């Protein structure tokens, strides 16, 4: 092995080992270097130096600095700095070395850490070093390592003397001591308060990470290494030196904020973001910004663009996923064990408030994070005290749920849902009477009904979360109870129909289309009999049932019902209204699904014009239409415009709906489809995996929308030539879709077509032909012979027949006349 090859091997091992826990790292390194003890020693030395590093830049820049300054590396160790006797080197970074020292000038003896600048230094580095001493001198906090002294060595090099901290990095200490989640949170609060103290003194650390926070044997955290800290007000300290070096971005990438990566101004929000990363790591045992051996630019792009999964999900899914670069990350059971829990218990513990606290600290926009490190610590304490946290809304329902959890009245939670439904039923009857009295009142009541229904749906969603956590009441039980209560309101058709409608919509949202149908059909039947054909409430039922028909793939029937709803809404609500805009959008989608793109585009233009007049500028409905238009441009192969529209829709949905929402997942998947078509399979894969992660949390396994994201990922795998992975995903999607949607559905035909094309690419002609013929027949039955998707399958079959030596079948299929 040449010197260059050996150096590359050392760096590869270092990069892979650095992401492992100390225990995992030791075992893995011993296995990798079993036949080369020298190699093991060199990598081990690099790892030890990294844990103690006090450099000016990240690991990459430290390596570069070391390679460019061989004199500094080769310089003999120094033995004395003023009255301090230096013994062993305990750290090394871009600016200098750190020694364990003792003061032995007959005054008193004291163990200290002495940082000495390299002897080959520039004026800028000296200025940076002096600035660090001044910064440290301004800080006086029990959880910040103190500056004790400073001066020049005999050969004129600056040095500073620090309190020696005999401790372990924060993450190592937490795991070795097997701290519970609550104990980790209490320890974290002390760290956050130390950071807040620095901020109050106008100092931003800029390089917060577990290795810069040591915990003593007594459990006392100490914040270290202000080597790249920045003064927010340089005039606050006399003779302050510049704190930024031209041409570099001081940071450790895995703990950097988006604004650091982008080179934007540094504020205290940088440290709040780093605290969020640290909190994520000590809770979930995972680094949310892991590099995994990829080029640095890929990590930086993820830092700027991608939201990490919540800690509760990372501990179950990401923690047990093998790294693309080599070793497996700590498994969920291992992570949970050192926290005194099982994987399921840890997932439940982190779900909810802790997820939201961490993700608020990690928001991409600095202004949307906690306003201070103290604010983050305060919210953590609210969680520990069982009080509502500020990382989510202070709604009455949320406060009531917190009160219920604190007092463990789980039965009361279910009772509250039924009381709310009963109260709603009473008001619904009153609404119906008012609607009949006047057209203007009808407008107002339509809006009020919409708000009450949204509240009822939210109650069911709360039950869904209870079900996911394994609590005593399930969503199915809530639905069954609600259905039983609805039947008691036969003499109050307005109330009964509204409850039936809500129950049907909840079933549909859960992906249970078979159960949703009878409720939505009965609701429409009751409303037609009670309110008549032309009424806003009847039109609402038409739209909801049409939505279910569309989800089942019955596009023509859905179109017919949407048109009936539109006629009723226009008769009652006039020419323009929010409900009319929504129905027009739904109708445009049905035309789009039927391949009638020109008609669909014309409707979209009408919808967008109306939306500007009836909605606020920033509204989820506008985001939805933007996304639909992006899909329309995608179908027309205008990929640049499609990408722009999907990015706009994704940004709006994240801002309006938060990161955890099925619509956000859908936008991620649609953007992934565009980027895949443009050839960026790496970015497309990342987007689909985010969509799948959100879909699993918000919809659950087996949901048709989740199958859509999995199907998209399979397409990416196929585009990347990863045929085995694509094949496995396609087969899973087929199974999920058949179970949820029945034996025939347009989406099932799509997956069959794509799997058939995959077999064709692999030269497996028999399997490909079977799947493609099945997809062709299903699409002809469900979509009609003239649909563009039918032609798509026919073209693939023509290529298959030509490639497999059956030109007569290819000619026969190519000459097939179009249906009238």
3D structure, described in words:
This protein is α+β, with helices and mostly antiparallel strands. Helices cover 63% and strands 7% of the residues. It has 36 helices and 11 strands. The strands form 3 sheets. The protein has a 6-stranded antiparallel beta sheet with strand order 1-2-3-4-6-5. Strand 5 and strand 6 form a beta hairpin. Residues 52-73, 233-249, 318-328 and 393-473 have low confidence and may be disordered.
What does the secondary structure layout of this molecule look like, with pairings?
Blueprint: H1 3-17, H2 22-32, H3 37-51, H4 59-68, H5 70-74, E1 80-81, E2 84-92, E3 96-104, E4 109-117, H6 123-137, E5 147-152, E6 158-163, E7 167-169, H7 170-176, H8 181-200, E8 203-204, E9 213-216, E10 221-223, E11 230-231, H9 258-261, H10 268-284, H11 296-305, H12 311-314, H13 332-337, H14 343-350, H15 353-361, H16 373-384, H17 396-407, H18 410-437, H19 439-469, H20 475-486, H21 493-509, H22 513-531, H23 536-551, H24 555-573, H25 578-593, H26 597-614, H27 620-635, H28 639-657, H29 662-677, H30 681-698, H31 704-719, H32 723-741, H33 746-761, H34 765-783, H35 788-803, H36 807-814
Antiparallel strand pairs: 1-2, 2-3, 3-4, 4-6, 5-6, 7-9, 8-11, 9-10
Helix pairs in contact: 1-3, 8-10, 8-16, 10-15, 15-16, 18-19, 18-20, 18-21, 19-21, 20-21, 21-22, 22-23, 23-24, 24-25, 25-26, 25-27, 26-27, 27-28, 27-29, 28-29, 29-30, 29-31, 30-31, 31-32, 31-33, 32-33, 33-34, 34-35, 35-36
